[in-house]
Amino acid sequence: MLNFVICDDNKNLLDRLEKMLETLFAKNNYAASVVFKTDNADDILNYIDNHVADVLMLDINLKSSKSGLELAEEIRKRKKNPYLIFTTGHLEYAMIAYKYKTFDYLAKPIVYDRLEETIHRLFEDANELSKTYLKIDNKNTIIDEAEIHYIKRDGMKLVFHTSSRDYDTYSSFNKFQDKLPSTYVRCHKSYIANLGQIKDVEPVSGTITFMDGQTCSIGPKYKKDFMEVMKDYGNF
Questions:
Q1: I want to staple 55 with a disulfide (CB 3.0 to 4.6 A). Which of 83, 88, 166, 172 is the partner?
Q2: Three-state DSSP class for 33?
Q3: Is residue 220 one of the residues assigned to a domain?
C-alpha cells in the first residue's frame, strides 16, 4: 500500500486531484490511497512526523508559511525515501524542484492522462526497489519493508503486520524468505520478525515485543539462532 499526501493552496484543485488519484487507483487496481490532504505546509510536516507517507504531491507556489520548495527541503531533512511530485503553473521552477530528489513534475492544469503516466512509472519504480518495497500479491499490493513488524503464517495465508494495518495474501514463507532483507529473521514456525521493529525480547519467556506493543513467541527450535542474530544486530 502506498500512502499519498497532497498539498495545494487551492482547495478546489486539492479536491479535484484527490478524486483523479482515487479514480486512477481504482481503475488500475493499485494498492494506494490519499491518506491526507491540506492547503497548509505546516500541516504536512506535522503529518509526516507521525504517520507513514510514501508519496507527497506538492504545489510549488503555495500561499502559505512555506513555498513548496521550502517544504520539500524540510521534508528531505526528516524523510529521505518518500517520492516527491511537484505541481505548478510556473514552468521556470521545474529545474529547481529536481534538486530535492524529485520523482516528477506536473504542469498545471493537471491532465488525467499525464497524471496516470506518472503514477504508472511510480509503481513500476516502487516494484523494482526490492530493498525498499515488497510486492505481496499480483494486485500491485506493495508494502514498505521497514514498516512491517512481523509476518505471520495463518493457515494458508500470510499476514503482514504493519504500524498502520494488516495485509494478508494466500502464500507461504518459502516464497518470500529469499526476497526479504537480512533484518527479517525466522523466530517461530509461524513468525518472521523484523529486527528493526523489535522493542524488547524476553529470552526466558520467549516473547518478542514490537514497537507497537504487539507480541509473538520465539519457538524452541529457532531460539538459539534467533538470539545469536539479535546479539549481532545489537538489540540484545
A1: 83
A2: strand
A3: yes
* CATH label of the domain that carries residue 86: 3.40.50.2300
Cis peptide before 203, with omega less than 30 degrees from 0? no
CATH number of the domain encompassing residue 171: 2.40.50.1020
Per-residue pLDDT, 131: 47
Tell me the per-residue pLDDT of 75-133, one tens digit each, with 9 for 90 and over. Answer: 988 888 899 999 887 666 656 655 678 898 898 899 999 999 999 999 988 876 544 67
Cα atoms in the Cβ-side hemisphere of radius 13 Å centred on 221 = 5
Claim to verify: residue 123 and residue 158 sit in the same structural domain: no
DSSP for 83-99, written as a single string: EEEEEES-GGGHHHHGG
**Angle, in degrees to the nearest 10, between helices 41-50 and 68-78:** 20
The 10s digit of each residue's pLDDT in 207-218 is 999 989 999 999
CA–CA distance, 156 with 173 (Å, rounded to integer)? 10
Shared domain check, 91 and 11 = yes
Residue 160: give the domain boundaries: 148-233
Confirm if 31 and 141 have CB atoms less than 8 A apart: yes
Render 178-208 in DSSP notation, one character per residue. TTS-TTEEEEETTEEEEGGGEEEEETTTTEE
The model's pTM: 0.58
